Amino acid sequence: MNFRIFLVLAGLIIVSGSGLFAQISGTVKDTRGLPVAGVEIFVEATGKGTVSDSNGVFVVQAIPGEILTFRHLNYQRYYLTLQKQTQDLNVILTGKIQNLPAARIRARNKSSHQRISEKKIKELPIFLGEHDVVKYLATLPGVLTKGLLHSGLHVRGGKSSQNGFFVHQIEVAHPRHLSGILTTYDPYVFGSAELYKGLFPARFNGYLSSYINMGMKNYDENGKFSGEVHAGIVSSSLKARFPLWPKTDAMAVVSVRKSYYDFWNRYREEVSDESSFPAYSFGDISLGSVIPLGNHWEVSFMGLATADELPIDMGDYIGYAMDWGTYNGVLTLKGSFADSSALQVSVGGTAYHAMVETEGRVSLKNKHQERTVQSKVLYKKRINNSLYLTTTGGVQKKFFIYDQWKEAKVGSFDSDFSLFQLSAEMKYYFNNRISLSGGLNGIVFQRETAQYALAPRMGLKKSFSRSAIWFNYSRTHQFHERIQVLTVESPVDYSIPIDGKDRPAISDQFSLGVSYSGIRKGFFSLEAYYRELSNCNEIAPHDRTTLKGLYSGMMDGDGYAFGVEVQGEFAYDDWLLRGNYTYSRTMLSFDKIAGDDFFYPGYDMPHRAMISFHYRLSRKFGIKAAWTYRSGAITTLPTGIAISQSVVSYGDIIDVVPLYNQKYNYRLPPSHHLDLNVDYYGNYSNNHLVVSVGVYNLYNRENADFIYLVPYQKSAYYTKFKITKRALLPLLPYAKVTLKF
Amino acid sequence: MRKLSGLFSLLFVLASCANEGFLELEFDNEINDHFIECYLEPGALPNLSVSRIKTLDDDFILDYVEGYQVMINDEELTYGFYQLPSGHVCNYGSQAIFQPAIGDEVFLQVISEEGDTIRAQTTVPTPISNLRAEYAHASIVVSFAAASNPKHNYYIVLLRKVFEKKEEQCLAELYDFSKLGDQEYVSFTLTLKRELALGYKIIVKRITQENYQYQKSLWNARKANEDNIVYPYPLDGNIHNAEGVFTCYTIDSAFVKVPQKK
Fold first, then answer.
1. Which of A95, A200, A651, A704 suits a disulfide with A474, CB 3.0-4.6 Å?
2. ipTM score for this prediction
3. A722 and chain B in contact, CB less than 8 A
């Protein structure tokens, strides 16, 4: 009996490996009934694909329940859930709105400007079962994070407050979940993103380090309803795509996500009286809709609302209660004219609020709010076969509201500013290999007085058959800075605009790079950059217990950053191997920190290396792994200890006081970790099922997420301090079940 | 279901076991600085503590210095160990009672063995007048006349529970009433958490603006590095060429009896 079962199983394994019963064939045509050649047919579950021939015929391995994606530059993307095994599938593709200039043959520039797709995001191990645009960004060369719990990205040696996030050119609120752990932008809604670390398009200004512009993917699924249910240990989500009206191409997408870690945390407290991670909870809802207006125009809408809560109990004398949330909405009209020029008009708004309550010797409640309204118009035109023009105009208004309570309201402050921008950018192709781009962004910052700034951009690129070399220069400005509420960057940090006597911060970036695309989709690139930082704005030291301290103003400083980014990618059959290394240094100088000497700021992390691989073991199983090494960030330790007479603290005769006369004077040890993820692909009642099981930080329990001082007191006047490190998540397994219907 | 909840519990125990350990400190940092504290009270004996600031990896934190020349105005303080009523020990003091005139400026000068000169100055606040405290429904309402100088309208308020045979401190607060002017009254309410005492003693200290800023920075700096997320905070003292504070305060107290329930 056992031998017969073995033979059946072996037969199934062999047959499933060969895919003898998994072939689907069909024809792709357009709305006129003509065959379409060169259509990419991609099976999402297996990662395999094919291309239609000159007759539009294709053959691909797939089984019922799997989703086929049909992609072609000139046609709207088409998704089909396979209902049955068939050799006669007929697919009709609809023509796409053309906003792109004529295609040019050139090697990929994958360093200063990188495109991110949902497919790319899914090639990495998921953490707590969540794919996310921001988490993927953190794996790219030149984009660093200080650790798992730090909510900021440091791009090419810049601060985390120097990155702008946009949807269709409209700024949206900064990522507000505990980034690094939990997701912010769901790729189910935000299906594509572009990261600009250099070679900034002239239409972007207002942030020094990077711009991340997200867009919504084409939701056309042939007017059908589809969805996913994700059930994880910490959070779950429900996602759906559906037609807005029957028998139309207008589609909508919604993703709703809610965590329940706070409930598990309370359960653990009942079991063990210990809980070393706060009861953090979050929820968000993302909406998207694309409504075609004829063949050449469309209207789209994006909405995102988030809510978070984080209580932190630090002992008898102090505790924090924090809650924050964001609301974003962007409405876009875009299309093309008969002369192939393209127009995009976007309007949008964001609202952010955060409440931080400190309970202790001095009990305070701080609330801050930020609101933004913005509109932007973008126009692209091909002048001739060699010359392309892009112009934009936009206006943005930001409002800041700060309130503080003790027992009653003790302070309130409002501020606002306006930004007006005009930009023009031209790209000229000398031939199919050499291109020169030049642009200028003019920006006006209006608060009590007006400040004007010009930001030139320039790029020169030469492409060969498999390689490219480029040189870029960009100037960018920033008119606000962020105050950190805690020692780590957190979602409750808030922005302060510069005032009339401050100048905007300026970054002049030069970069030089080379790339090579080899056989079998191999890719390699190397880029070096240098950034000159002028008028760096840093919040001056201030009393954090009152609002008055906010207006001690900004410190004005200078600095520079430089680095090298190397990345490579290699794909072979079922393997995808990707790796990158970043060397990045930043030095700043402020007269009120370190006595005007240059110093390394807290986010200076010289080395970061990452290797990831994705291997499809079989039709049913896939494995993903990522190993990351990172230099330690810099923190601040006391330069000395003193014993102080206690005149306020009751019960204590003396206070042992750490003295801080320097900032950023101690580098944490480096950290490294391996994340592993195994996916199972199956079916459940004709619906596609994915079970993901993984581990974050498989082997290393020594990573220091934080350090702090622990006093050991032998007597009232004899104390020894030890630096204690804490790895908050030394190992974290997770599991997630996804059902696609 | 039991196995499933057990598995989740195991996952969370594994996940939540924050790993702690000690780092070897390699901190190349030499300090040659002093820490001085002096709280003067009119009508009391002056005393002051001068110590050298120690680095993190030193074993002995308190390093009282000897052989320094310490002068407050024209009065020289002598080296010794002077224990305060709170139990704190200072290393310089005088047997001459501190009797400044109201509004006087007071100067400090310390010359170290190496010849370094440390200086500071402060002013003497006016005495607190018309201090009243009334018990009202698990709280105490305190009022007194504000100081005419806004820089002296800062206060430390201590609340002590009084029992039959002992006293116990239960509250300490810092107040900023600098916006009040002459002829105005300071008034605030202290909320009582329990009413087990026979009565409450309210101690009000009128302090200078420099002392108020120093106490707040002291509180912030003390809490910094106790856990991961409290922001490092420099001390905000008023001594030139040293850390610490040189200040003067006036003091008054009142007693409130808790009505006994019948």
1. A200
2. 0.79
3. yes
